[in-house]
Amino acid sequence: MELMNQACVHESSSDDALLRKAYAAAQWRILPILFCLWMLAWVGRSNVAFAKLQMVVDLRFSETVYGLGAGLFFVGYVLFGMPTTMLQKKFGARAVLAGVAGAWGVTSVAMTFVNSAPTFYALRFLLGVFEAGFYPGVVLYFNAWFPGKRRTRNFSIFHSGALFSTVTIGLTGGFVLENLNGLAGFHGWRWMFFTQAIPTVVLACVAFAVLPNVPGSAKWLSARQRELVENDLRKNAETMNDVGTVERPLLLNPAVWILSAAYFCLLAATAALFFFSPTILREAGFEGYKEIGRAVAGACIFGALGNVLICSIGGAPHRRRSFCALASVFTAASLSGLVFSWHSSAGATFFLLVLGFAGTGAGISLFWQMSVGLLSGKSLVLGVPLISSVANVAGFLTPILIGYVRDATGTYASGFIMVACVQALGVGVLLFGVQRIMRPRSRAADISVQNAV
To answer: How many domains does the chain have?
Structure first.
């Protein structure tokens, strides 16, 4: 009997080691590709903020025209999020995630040739159409690959790609605007769009060749490792029963709309920071494209580190909601403080941008990990893209509102204060609205998580 117990212990220890190696292999093979694609997605949608420093003068765009073009990205994003995610269920994650990446890469290349407001509007809309399914698709993809804290940590790293995108835009954009301006008769902002889009097309091809759909199809895992991963995912499933009755239609599920409201508030702040940070830094006293680019890059690097730190501390299931709300408080404080600092203190402006980037990054990362635990079945598969689509209306409205206020008043102050108030409302939704839709977890559904809030 003792020999049998020792054999069981040895087998269990061996299986644990194999499982750890399997997850480590998955992280190294999957996470870098998705991180870089997410970073490049944000480069494609956000580099217009840096190009704005030259483009609005070259094409004679008003702030309102710029804001409308920046925001039209989110119209395509809202309309096509759910259809693309449904295609992922039918054709698999590899084909859909790589396919949409290649499509938005080609669209980003086409931004090089913008010559009028209608062309600008059309390409921004198409860019949103092709990016729409990537983020919710990755949420579901991670849910199929990693359990619990491992998923939260990996997702926070993945999401930091959004912040590092601005590092890429800042460092390369500043160089291109200053050094390639006039090359072959093209302005620097056109070269910036071109050079920052090509890597997306290349990496999309790599993703199609490398990414497996599910652990069971990963050829670089042994048969035993695939079995262990699948068993571990079932054992540590964090998906709760749907809130309310299972038969309740998705559009009548209160969880979907409360989560959409919370995410709307988070994305309003994200749009304000990403689309206007280069202009804010220029008005704060940073001179020259390279200096502005380095400042944007530095703020995002420190913001990304803050994002990972907050998610590491608040990644446990019972902490996600409260730390998501705390991150939103940091963001609201950043937006409010910027109004009073960017014309008087370059140092304070830089610090507040760091705080804002850390808050938005951590808030969004923790939001999705919390949301996965509130939805299951069809509500999970369809609810994730629906929440993303509804909430991304904030991305459409925010730059238009801020641009219009700037044209009307000559300052961004009123627009940023309004966005800060929206973010503060989001804190209330997270603390009180989400709490109302949460229910105790079924131990049969999740035996690994205790005392979920």
So the answer is: 1
Answer whether residue 87 is part of any domain: yes
In a domain, 10, yes or no: no
- Average of per-residue pLDDT values in the chain: 82
Structure tokens at 390: 């509804």
**Contact in structure between 85 and 93 (CB atoms under 8 Å):** no
Contact 332, 338 (CB under 8 A): no
* pTM, two decimal places: 0.74
Residues spanned by the domain of 167:
16-214+232-437
Radius of gyration of the chain (CA): 22
Residue 364 Cα distances to 248, 268, 307, 356, angstroms: 27, 12, 10, 12
Question: CA 333: distance to chain centroid?
Answer: 21
Torsion of CA 127, 133, 136, 141, to 10 degrees: -130
Look up the CATH number of the domain holding residue 30.
1.20.1250.20
C-beta of residue 218 within 8 angstroms of C-beta of residue 212: yes
User: What tokens were used for 339?
Assistant: 């109004």
Cβ-contact 251, 379 below 8 angstroms:
no
Q: Is residue 220 part of a domain?
A: no
Rounded CA separation 300/350 (Å): 10
| Distance separating alpha carbons of residues 417 and 63, to the nearest angstrom | 18
Question: How many Cβ atoms are within 10 Å of 355's Cβ, its own excluded?
Answer: 21
Per residue in 386-439, pLDDT (tens digit) is 887 788 888 888 988 888 888 888 888 888 999 999 999 999 999 998 888 775
Nearest by Cα to 132 from 257, 41, 196, 263: 41
Residue 401 lies inside a defined structural domain of this protein: yes
For the ranges 20-29, 219-228, 371-380, the lowest mean pLDDT is seen at: 371-380
